[in-house]
Amino acid sequence: MKKNLMSILILALLVVNIVLTAIMMFSVTGAMKSTTALVGRIAGILDLELDLGADGNELSIDDIDLYDISEAMTIPFHLDTASEGENAKQVYLRLSVSLQLDKTHEDYKKYQESLATNESLIKGEIMEVVSSYTLEEFQNDTDGVRSEILARLRRLYNSDFIYKVVFTDYTY
Question: What is the value of pTM for the model shown?
């Protein structure tokens, strides 16, 4: 009788241990996600500061012309159903973009006047790039998104007269 009572007591303690471990895992996972997002944002900010002035092709302010995309774009982020499951909600980005153009580049005069007429193509490239990212990926690698947009626009024009892509305003 004592052996059966001890076995039942051990089994009950084992079940309680498993239940408490499961509760702890679910409560820690939520905090871990928010901590990971915070660390990612901090790392992104540090990368921005470390990359300042690293480009050897720095232009003076007099050699840069700014072209603002006329309207802010509302772009849906890629839906991350793998981590969110069926509870995933569609998130949108409202984005204003400016292009910094190199006035000293040989193609500047050739393409600068056509930017307004090709604005829908430019917006299309920006939307394709941004919509391929999830919200977390965008927050963690904004510079990577800018670089990819810049590469796509340079490929579109077959020229590198576009010096830089700048996000002047964005909200989620």
Answer: 0.64
